Structures are given as structure tokens and as C-alpha cells.
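Following up on my earlier thread - several people asked me to post the actual chain instead of describing it. Fair enough. Here it is, all 88 residues.
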Amino acid sequence: MTELMSPIDRLKMRLVFRKIDHIEEHLEAMQRDPHGLEYAPWKTEVDNIWKEIFSDINDMSEDAQKIVLEAMRETWVSYITHYGAVES
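Reply from S.P.:
Thanks for posting it. Predicted structure:
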């Protein structure tokens, strides 16, 4: 299906997947040291990355949105379950 997407959608998808990888690295660190000095800055950074991701998704076609949202579901649900909603 990705071969039928626009080059912009493919680029945005790659960027979103990289950002999700970055979030997963932070989540591992946050789980290892939930009371450490770095926890709050990591949490703030992860919240901001999620905001960027959802902004990128908003700019994609519906087909690309469906693919990305399905691919990131597990990470998003884990994040929301353990760390709460993204703050504004």
C-alpha cells in the first residue's frame, strides 16, 4: 500500500517511525529510573515528541494515517497507561 502513497506521506511516515523509536528509548530509560533526576525532562521531551507525531499524522492522507496509527498503537497505549495524557 505504501507504494501508492505520495512521497510526502512516505517521508512523514518515516519521520514518525523514527520519532516513535526515540520515544521507546526514552520509555525504557524512564522505566529504569522513575525517581531519577532525568525523569521529568524525559517525560517533557516524550510529551513534545508525541505532539509532533500527531501533528505529522494530521498532515497525512487518510490511508497513511491508518497505517501509522495502527503501527504505533502498542507504544501509544503503553505510554498513556503508564505516564498519563499528553499535557498542553
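The radius of gyration is 14 Å. That should answer part of your original question.
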